[in-house]
Specification:
35% of the residues lie in helices and 18% in strands. It has 31 helices and 34 strands. Helix 15 packs parallel to helix 21 (384-397). The strands form 10 sheets. It has a 6-stranded mixed β-sheet, sandwiched between helices. The longest helix has 16 residues, at 297-312. By secondary structure, the chain is α/β, with parallel strands linked by helices.
Length: 774
């Protein structure tokens, strides 16, 4: 195990923790005032009105937060949520991490800061370089930076020694050029943030329905009779989803939530765009909450499906027999497997009562238009792919795929991460994509699969990969096994980050580190007096334009397409058939080439205007010909068994309400009643009693896999309504506990939601803890 270093996590400083009762609703006036306060602190309220008025609007810019789709008819009051406003506040901040900032703060000092402090340093303004043996980043000219990167790439013995990582914020155009460059360079080492989140969704859906994307559109929520929300916290991670659930309820639909924690936004929603959201009680969202144990969704779904099958013997309409007969395969095998299951054992495994599960069964039995939504609570387990396939099983029994008001809805938590994958960011080989790239650009693309995120970290750690380039993201804080990942980056000859703001990855450098500052979504991307636009794809497969209008944070910034193309041009010089310089500046040319390569992108620039266009989706049309066997596939998925020792717990990492992925907006988790501190562990009161500890006890968390112990130090125990034997704590602080070699079968997604841990008392108590009932 590598020696721990505060460089990877910052120094531990516990704050003045304050605990209140968890909130009973999401959004409302409090959400509005909280958003405004963030805007006031970062840019000033008056100066923030212009970007807010353009956020998610036609002819405006796409939110840099989540990928929840925009309605065709946008609200004039504002088409954004509290966390979307916070994301914009972070981007439009007046704070600057400029050369003067770097001259005053050494790399050692910055490494000691926590992630919140690093994020508040502000926007990057000029290219910076940290050379081997130096303690301070210094400015570097753009052309010098491009030549330095090209020089290091040429020194590699093989193209597979370079890794090209992508996060979700980049545009379709930038991601396409990035993937094209990597393949023209000679490698498929194109890991991306999807590997760490929805890779399990993509594989599970492709195996069963023939497409690795969800099948619903936003309009389907208006027609749905039942929405099942699993492993997901919409109120914090994609709050605009609450508006869609509210519409479903107004049209008579029902909602079931299945999650270890009862989240405020799914209890009740106060829509701030309606009078009732200010002075009324709001809308009750969840009709039935099932507090399932961590990663025991499969036994819960098995109980329900077994009950539905038995009920259908008396009431044939409970299942869609015609759909099953005409459109599916494997039904008999599923039935046989469920007949072998015991209701009692399934109840014990999932931690739910027969009464709770029977209520869910009744709601499902009476309805045929069903949507299942999910996020990381289902995907980040060893059996993440199986979790998704079990959801599909339930939908297929009900015939709830390929018709209005029904289908699959994996909710992407990062803007345009789905678009990146669509335009070619993938480590595996697509023969069709390779053939199209070869034909359009007269190149020979590599046929060997590349590294995904986990395996690129292992390759860098072992010295097999020597250069790491990141298009957006905060890699070291997002990945599992923080200290291992940090050492992997430091083993590199060169690390390159294309970023808008300073983050911890910049402070975990290779022997040489280069930071390339880029435009934010909200900023005007102007070339020769013409305002350019880029395109993105939302969580439901619709592609549309995004066009910023604010003055850039610095005159030295370049756009992502320009940066990627300039690196490629510096590397290839004139020895390439690809017009890199032209494509980096002329986005219409890039989109023209994309339309020649990508299916469904005909007349790309024109069709992306206005509300944009949907990409082809076979599952949406009930066309399952892409599945092996030609029909939608029922699958048999085993219930997970975690084999916990008497003193072990199952920990899931979660986000706070003041957080978007690894970006920390503040130190509060308002909906859960946690204030001024992030190093907390939510624990069942009975488990607290079993451990002989009290609220406010300070513990260390440890995980041990294959004889290697990993420790996360100084966490405060807070009693909470969570199933016995389960714990919850925030990431990235607890990412140090997740082993690099523990991940989902097939998808290699880290087990961030089901880590076996022990509590180790420090014999200390957090004396300044305060419980406020107000």
């Amino acid at each position: 195990m590598e020696k721990k270093s505060s460089a990877a996590t910052g120094k531990i400083k516990l704050g003045n923790l304050k605990v209140k009762e968890p909130a009973t609703y999401g959004a409302g006036a409090t959400g509005v005032f909280t958003a405004l306060s963030h805007l006031q602190k970062e840019r000033g309220l008056i100066n923030s009105l212009a970007p807010l008025s353009k956020l998610n609007q036609l002819e405006g810019f796409d939110c840099p937060g989540c990928a929840w789709p925009d309605p065709d008819h946008r609200s004039k009051l504002g088409e954004f949520c509290e966390n979307g406003a916070k994301a914009v506040a972070e981007e439009v901040t007046h704070a600057r991490a400029n050369p003067d900032f770097f001259a005053h703060h050494s790399i050692e000092e910055l490494q000691s800061w926590n992630d919140y402090e690093i994020g508040k340093s502000g926007r990057l303004t000029e290219p910076m370089i940290l050379e081997e043996g130096e303690r301070y980043y210094r400015p570097i000219k753009w052309e010098t930076a491009f030549k330095a990167i090209a020089h290091e790439l040429r020194r590699l013995e093989h193209p597979d020694q370079a890794v090209f990582y992508t996060s979700g914020r980049s545009s379709n155009e930038a991601a396409f050029l990035y993937g094209l460059f990597a393949r023209a360079f000679g490698t498929n080492n194109l890991p991306d943030c999807s590997n760490m989140c929805h890779e399990s969704s993509g594989i599970g859906l492709k195996e069963t329905l023939g497409i690795g994307k969800g099948s619903v559109t936003l309009d389907d929520f208006d027609q749905a009779e039942l929405v099942i929300v699993m492993g997901q916290n919409p109120g914090t991670n994609h709050p605009r989803m609450l508006s869609a659930l509210q519409k479903c309820k107004e049209h008579g639909g029902k909602v079931i939530s299945i999650n270890p924690l009862a989240e405020a936004g799914l209890r009740r929603f106060k829509n701030p765009q309606q009078i009732g959201g200010w002075i009324g009680n709001g809308t009750t969202i969840t009709d039935l909450h099932l507090p399932v144990k961590i990663n025991q969704d499969i036994p819960a779904l098995k109980w329900i499906m077994k009950s539905l099958l038995e009920l259908s013997a008396e009431q044939p309409n409970v299942l869609d027999q015609a759909f099953i007969s005409q459109n599916t395969q494997g039904f008999e095998g599923l039935v046989a497997s469920l007949e072998k299951e015991s209701y009692e054992q399934l109840e014990k495994a999932c931690g739910l009562s027969s009464e709770e599960l029977q209520k869910a069964t009744e709601l499902i039995a009476e309805r045929n238009k069903i949507i299942i939504c999910w996020a990381m609570g289902l995907t980040q387990h060893k059996n993440g792919v199986e979790n998704i396939r079990e959801c599909v099983n339930l939908l297929l029994l009900k015939g709830s795929v390929g018709k209005p008001g029904a289908g699959t809805c994996p909710v992407r938590g990062h803007s345009n991460v789905q678009g990146d994958r669509t335009v070619g960011i993938m480590h595996h080989v697509s023969p069709a994509l390779n053939q199209a790239l070869n034909k359009t650009f007269d190149i020979i693309t590599p046929k060997k699969p590349g590294y995904d995120t986990v395996h690129c970290i292992q390759a860098m750690h072992s010295g097999k990969a020597k250069i790491f380039v990141s298009l957006g993201g905060n890699f070291v804080s997002a990945a599992s096994d923080t200290y291992y990942t940090a050492q992997a980056l430091q083993n590199c000859e060169l690390t390159v980050s294309i970023s808008t703001k300073l983050n911890r990855t910049h402070l975990i450098p290779g022997k040489t580190s280069i930071i390339l500052p880029t435009l934010g979504r909200s900023e005007a991307d102007e070339k020769d007096g013409t305002l350019r636009f880029v395109t993105v794809e939302n969580s439901m497969g619709k592609v549309h334009q995004s066009k910023g209008g604010l003055a850039p944070a610095s005159e030295h910034l370049k756009s992502e397409p320009e940066i990627v193309s300039a690196i490629a041009n510096a590397y290839f010089k004139n020895n390439t058939p690809i017009p890199w310089k032209k494509m980096g500046s002329d986005y219409d040319l890039t989109r023209l080439k994309m339309s020649e390569v990508l299916i469904g992108f005909k007349d790309y620039s024109e069709r992306s205007k206005g509300n944009g266009f949907y990409l082809p989706n076979n599952a949406r049309e009930a066309n399952f010909s892409f599945v092996e066997g030609g029909k939608a596939k029922f699958t048999i998925n085993d219930s997970p068994v975690h084999h916990l020792a008497e003193d072990e717990y199952l920990l899931m990492t979660i986000r706070s309400h003041d957080q978007f992925n690894t970006t920390i907006y503040g130190l509060d988790d308002r909906y859960r009643g946690i204030y001024n501190e992030r190093r907390v562990v939510l624990i069942n009161p009975k488990d607290l009693e079993k451990e002989g500890l009290i609220s406010g006890s300070i513990v260390n968390l440890s995980s041990q896999y294959y004889g290697v112990e990993r420790v996360a130090e100084k966490f405060i125990l807070v009693p909470y309504s969570i199933p016995k034997g389960n714990l919850a704590a925030y990431f990235p602080e607890t990412n140090v506990l997740i082993p690099i070699d523990q991940y989902a079968k097939k998808s290699h997604t880290p087990i961030s939601k089901s880590v076996k841990v022990k509590l180790k008392s420090t014999d200390k108590y957090f004396q300044s803890i305060s419980y406020d009932k107000s």
